[in-house]
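User: Could you check the structure of this?
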Amino acid sequence: MKKALSILLAAGMLATALAGCGASSSSSAPAAGSTSGSTASAEGEYAGQTLKVAAIETAYGTQMWEDVVAAFEAKTGATVELTTDKNLEDVIDPSMKAGDFPDVVHLAMGREKAMPETLIKEDALEDLTDVLSMNVLGEDVTVGEKIIPGFTGNNTTDPYGDGHTYLMPMFYSPCGLFYDAGLFETKGWEVPETWDEMWELAETAKADGISLFSYPTAGYLDAFTYAMMAEAGGQDMFNRALNYEEGIWETPEMTKMFDVLTKLASYTDPSVPSNANGDNFTKNQQLILDDKALFMPNGTWVVGEMADAPRAENFKWGFMALPALEEGGDRYSYTFFEQCWVPAGAENKELAKVFISYLYSDEAADIFAASNAVQPIAGMTDALSEENQLFYAVYDNGAKAAIGTFAATDPVEGVNMKDAMCFTMDSVVSGTKTQEDWVNAVSTASDALRAALK
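Assistant: Sure, the predicted structure tokens are below.
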């Protein structure tokens, strides 16, 4: 896995974390927040200091954060006030506007409220470049040495392109198409390797009353469309698109991509747009478990998220990279990773950096892995369940890793690349917009953001 990622990333791929349109954290249903604190022992270098940590609650749960905090307190003597919530922005934004900042925030880019993106535009994040050269707390190795190559030094972690790191990479996951492998075995169907084979399967499944495609919310189409960009034009064109190159969306390669997306919209279960929101997204995921739709884009967290959901007889999770555009063509699986960061207004920045270094320790990584949250550290996938190891093996099975996100810009009122690229598909599925409308929306947003590049 490390080899596969390193080879690709060395070629100059940009990197991200849920990037553009969606992520595991963006699909969580509303829940009341929780704040916990404990009194650490009076011993330790940081005894008497208090650290405020805010972490998004996702399908991985909150227990792992509570356990990591407890272990950190035991090592340092510090006291940690931990806040978790499925809608973390709603909890911390009011206090931040009042000047009361958390010291460490774990909240990925790509969510609807775009908190880290906004702070980037406002130059309101702390420079964390020196964390990479710090020793991991309790270990004789630096943070930079532990992180898999390619997960730092990209335009997500270094959003200003100046070689300085402002967001640290956290849990990563291959994103691709999930399906019921048991259904394919029962029906004797071959898993499609090209889009032409996908369309043939769509007609076969349609005869059995099964739709080809579902998506939880349009936000999840970011990983899907990023991989499609790479398939359509290769790594170079992918990078050019992420930097808003003029005319990129009208090229033959991107036209081919939109042709596929529009055709896929016609094969999407018609109930999807009405349920593609934070309250009902699991209904769209349930279509896969009920064998009412064949494929959906998602990340490995969906297994835990739907662990208690009913499912068809003989259901078994399957996972694949996107089909190739032509026989023998490259297949891609988008690699999503989350981020943690320090607000520039935080009070305890020194201890915040020590805490972040600890997140890459073997001890903390093992705690996270027990909840299937995988840090970008070599060898961590060995600690996963057999089912999750299957997902992470997608790169060992020939898929290339698409890793990238749109470049940071100054704010442009009323312009959101995520909305244009991803959420327009809701309207295409429902028939209220055409492929031409879609391309025009993306091109217009790209033009506006190109003029505002950082």
